[in-house]
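Thread: sanity check for a docking pose with adenosine-5'-diphosphate

Original post by kr_44:
Hi all, I'm comparing my docking run against an independent structure prediction. Below are the sequence and the ligand SMILES. Could someone generate the full complex and paste the structure tokens? I mainly care about where the ligand ends up relative to the chain.
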Amino acid sequence: MTTAEDPQPSNTEPAFQIELRRLEKSYGQGRVRRSVLNGLDFQAQAGQTVALLGRSGSGKSTLLNLLAGIDQPDAGEVLVNGRHQSHLTDSERTDFRRRQVGFIYQSFLLIPTLTAFENIALVLELNDVRGGELKRRTATMLDDIGLSDRGGSYPDQLSGGEQQRIAIARALVHRPKLVLADEPTGNLDEDSGRSMLALMHSLVSQQHGLLVMVTHSLAVARSAERVLTLEQGKLFEREGEFAW
Ligand SMILES: Nc1ncnc2c1ncn2[C@@H]1O[C@H](COP(=O)(O)OP(=O)(O)O)[C@@H](O)[C@H]1O
Ligand SMILES: [Mg+2]
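Reply from moderator J.T.:
Ran it for you. Here is the predicted complex with adenosine-5'-diphosphate included:
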């Protein structure tokens, strides 16, 4: 959804596009080497929401790490806006990860010694946002997730659903183009899962980002425009099966 306040109008060219070409990834050594991704292709752009299904151990987390630039493929290419990621220097890759990617994990991974406010603000600091702007944007984000009165709480003082809201805020506060969620509702009860899913969709669409969610949940899969399954190291687009 594009609004009048949208900082980057999105009615012309897509603002962000990612493509995976013939990706290969295996683990282990010599004879015990195990192929996880096996010539995998994928293409998606800002404004889309994608659900990724697959059996445990099929390589979903490996794939997210390659999309995020946290890990490198053995062969094949990751292209962001047509640019080969393998041509980037380490510092350019770090920069991409820090500025353009937001990651939401099943186990939240909040920093226990920092308050909710500080967990969110840290990401802005890493993106060179300081002072009044840092405070204002962190407070706005807390407000967006309905936790403006909990900024001073530490993670262990918050419920699972509240911690996951903070984790969403932390993943989105720097307005990344690529939002990756690895089984984001896996540790939540049904109600918290539903509300966190709605929140994630609404914030990512406001920011005109690309959302890629790994999930076992049918509800999560149904909330996405595109559903793909990872099988034998390749991705398969499911047409229509989940659109009910
Ligand atoms: N760092 C690693 N070292 C060795 N094997 C790994 C590593 N990461 C993942 N694997 C293996 O790769 C396969 C895919 O893992 P993963 O991507 O985590 O699957 P999924 O997220 O779909 O459950 C599994 O067999 C896993 O054991
Ligand atoms: Mg996984």
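Strands lie at 17-27, 34-45, 49-53, 75-80, 83-84, 101-105, 178-182, 210-214, 226-231, 234-238. Hope that helps with the comparison, let us know if your pose agrees.
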